[in-house]
Amino acid sequence: MPWSPLAHFPAALHAVAANIRLACFDVDGTLTDGRLFYDHAGNESKAFFVQDGLGLKLLQKHGIHPVLITARNSLSAQRRGADLGIDTQIAVGDKLASVRALCGRFGIGLEQVAFMGDDLPDLAPLCAVGLAVAPANAHPLVAARVHWQTRAEGGRGAARELCDALLALQGRLDTVVAEYAR
Fold first, then answer.
1. What is the DSSP string of 86-137?
2. Hey, what long-range contacts does 57-61 have (CB within 8 A, 24 or more apart)?
3. Angle formed by the axes of helices 75-84 and 50-61, to 10°?
């Protein structure tokens, strides 16, 4: 049996995922493994998973707006977003207010938003959006409140898992594969 990004995605969520137009991602613990590295001068660094980045770009190319939203004032996150050419919001005190503002900007409702987060600062948007997703290693208080939990951990393909499922459910995954297979 060939691989399918929907093998572990609940059938009850297919219709919701097919209507997602905005995909918001927490950074630390979601797009990274949650560890922070500081050099002797106090400069922060993080590791981002390249396949997650491609997934975000594929969403962008196929009509779903990806946005990074982090509470930390993180130059690493800002740089990653800039490298990918996607919206990035750092030092966000109220993630739900940020998501609502994005909905207004794109003219969509919260039911058309997917949010992926791993810890308590992500709960408000996770509880408000149409598709709430957590990586495999999310805090149990968050994991218990989302619609779906990926098999991959944060910083190790969790975001790509969501991206592939969204692309598949919106009928775009075959086009993506064909673009790279030529």
1. -EEE-S-S-HHHHHHHHHHHHT--GGGEEEE--SGGGHHHHHHSSEEEE-TT
2. 57/84, 57/85, 57/86, 58/163, 58/167, 58/176, 59/23, 59/163, 59/166, 59/167, 60/85, 60/86
3. 50
Instruction: Pull the structure tokens for residue 146.
Output: 């989302």
Residue 1, pLDDT > 60, answer: no
Indicate the SS3 state at residue 27: coil
* Predicted TM-score (pTM) of this structure: 0.96
24-53 per-position pLDDT tens digit: 999 999 999 999 999 999 999 999 999 999
Q: Cβ contacts of residue 61 below 8 Å, gap of 6+?
A: none
The closest alpha carbon to 156, from 58, 32, 25, belongs to: 32
Q: What is the 3-state secondary structure (H, E, C) of 37-85?
A: EECCCCCEECCCCHHHHHHHHHHHHCCCEEEEECCCCCHHHHHHHHHHC
The residue to which tokens 């919106």 are assigned: 170
Taking the C-alpha atoms of residue 57 and residue 33, their distance in angstroms, rounded to an integer, is 20
Size of the chain, expressed as the number of residues it contains: 182
Rounded distance between C-alpha atoms, residue 44 and residue 123, angstroms? 25
